[in-house]
Design goal:
Elements: E1 7-11, H1 15-26, E2 30-34, H2 42-46, E3 50-51, H3 55-61, E4 64-67, H4 72-79, E5 90-93, H5 99-111, E6 115-122, E7 134-139, H6 141-151, E8 156-161, H7 166-194, H8 199-221, H9 234-251, H10 259-274
Parallel strand pairs: 1-2, 1-4, 2-3, 4-5, 5-6, 7-8
Antiparallel strand pairs: 6-7
Helix pairs in contact: 7-8, 9-10
């Protein structure tokens, strides 16, 4: 297969859709784009993309079609009118959604005769196509093996399994971890600011090096059991978390910013109760 000449259609030109199309054009792919609201394709067209006037035209122009839309409903609304055209088409859905939505969409597209992969983009628009970007895919392995080199320029392809819901599952779970880190950083900065500390110095000299040091330990230590390693001393951890929550309250930091601390406290108290 000559991936260089694979024709790819992108449905949706939000920030992420434009980033996907841009990375594929940069790699020399033949790209067709479509957006519900016209007028967003100018820069991409100037670089060689084709601007389709309809979804039908976009799907017909591509060897595979990538949907990157607002949500699951928008994917359904976009594809439903052209369902009869989807037989033997390859559809890759990189729109964020739930595990259930991915499985249901896979079933619906199978009934339409389409080959389907669900996906999750582990990147933000500015990092699409860079070394650190990777894309989760789930669904039939033979479909993944075909499209992985074609879509490789947008991010390192990672197959999550045959279950079409697994890309969404891993995507949502990884984002949960990211937002947990973000919540912790936001709370830390709010606490320092509330007590008159130098936020920029704290972020540069304390918070970032500390979080970088603890990242691997935190991920490796994540667990679903009621126990924690002995060296963690859950009773001591619970006391420490209670102290942070008290300090946060005394500083006037909004309680909503401390949700991650309460989640950790719940886990440590559960470990203590389990013995």
């Amino acid at each position: 297969m000559n991936t260089q000449h694979e024709r790819i259609s992108i449905l949706g030109l939000g920030a992420m859709g434009r980033a996907l199309a841009s990375a594929l054009l940069e790699a020399g792919r033949e790209v067709t784009v479509w957006n519900r609201t016209p007028g967003k394709a100018g820069e991409l067209v100037a670089r060689g993309a084709r601007d389709a006037l309809s979804v039908e035209e976009a799907i017909e122009a591509g060897d595979l079609t990538v949907a990157c839309l607002l949500d699951d409903a928008s994917v359904r609304d976009t594809l439903a009118p052209v369902a009869r055209q989807l037989t033997d088409e390859t559809i890759v859905n990189l729109t964020s959604g739930s595990v259930r939505q991915a499985r249901e969409l896979a079933g619906w597209l199978k009934e339409s005769g389409a080959r389907f992969l669900a996906g999750g983009i582990m990147a933000v628009p500015p990092t699409v196509g860079t070394e650190g970007a990777f894309i989760l895919y789930s669904g039939a392995r033979d479909v993944f093996d075909r499209i992985a080199p074609v879509l490789g320029p947008i991010g390192l392809p990672h197959w999550a399994g045959e279950d079409p819901g697994f890309a969404a599952l891993y995507d949502m779970a990884a984002l949960s971890g990211m937002y947990g880190m973000g919540a912790g950083a936001d709370h830390a900065v709010a606490l320092v600011h509330a007590e008159g500390g130098n936020v920029e110095t704290f972020k540069r000299e304390v918070l970032r090096p500390w979080m970088e040091q603890m990242l691997a330990i935190t991920v490796d230590g994540a667990d679903v059991s009621e126990s924690v390693p002995d060296e963690y001393n859950p009773a001591m951890q619970a006391t420490g978390l209670e102290n942070i929550l008290s300090a946060s309250g005394e500083a006037g930091v909004p309680a909503d910013l401390a949700g991650h601390l309460r989640a950790s406290l719940w886990r440590m108290r559960r470990a203590v109760a389990a013995g």
